[in-house]
Amino acid sequence: MPSAPAPLVLASASPRRFDLLRQIGLEPDLVDAAAVDETPLPRELPPAHAQRLAAAKAAAVLPRHGRCFLIAADTVVACGRRILPKAEDAETAARCLALLSGRRHRVLGAVQIVAPDGRRLARLVTTSVAFKRLSAAEVDLYLASGEWRGKAGGYAIQGLAAAFIPWINGSYSNVVGLPLAEVWTLLQGLGFRR
User: What number is the average pLDDT over the span 20-44?
Assistant: First the structure.
């Protein structure tokens, strides 16, 4: 009799990541959010920051579970070398939108997946995103929506902000919060089966 498959654990409280996994038929057996300090280190560049946080989330959650497949991820919105914060208030969101308006930026998605036997695979996925020049009225309307709350860079591409984005190059799901093609490939490479 074959043994039961190892559980799939998502080390994130993000409903977007959960929904993205469900979109490709991967419903986590358990969600266990990692409480890690997401403050960038001095002179830390965006790619290193995203990768460090994904690894820290995996390290924080893994000891709480036995043999499982664990998915940990972090999403960073970057303008040049600058890491944009998660917008927790309208003032921060407005500053992010002012910086993004009329220019391109990068969304960096770092993923770390751990197999039941302890093997780990990691990827960093970069998506380029172009914002149109935003009018004051558009910014005010978006701020009034509250959709920016808790979002890296102060926007959600899957919502109203889609009207501001004429072009992306790379993974759309990465901008939402999890690069699905890469996650699927890494899980398959580690022997995940359902």
Answer: 94
- Band (pLDDT 50/70/90 cuts) for residue 13 is confident
- pTM exceeds 0.85: yes
CA distances from 23 to 16, 104, 132, 133, 180 (A): 10, 28, 29, 32, 9
Give the Cα-Cα-Cα angle 111, 61, 29 (nearest 5 degrees): 80
Q: What are the distances in angstroms from CA 60 to CA 32, 36, 94?
A: 10, 8, 32
- Helix ranges, 14-165 (H): 15-23, 46-61, 90-100, 136-145
If phi > 0 it is left, if psi is from -120 to 50 it is alpha, else beta; for residue 80 that is left
Contacts of 142 (CB under 8 A, 6+ apart): 93, 97, 134, 148, 155, 160, 161, 164
Is 19 an active-site residue? no
Instruction: Check: CB of residue 48 under 8 Å from CB of residue 109.
Output: no
Please give the single-letter amino acid code of residue 17. R
pLDDT digits (tens, 9 = 90+) for 98-138: 999 999 999 999 999 999 999 999 999 999 999 999 999 99
- Which of 74, 89, 117, 140 is labelled catalytic? 74
Burial of 25 (0-12, 13-18, 19+ CB in 10 A): exposed
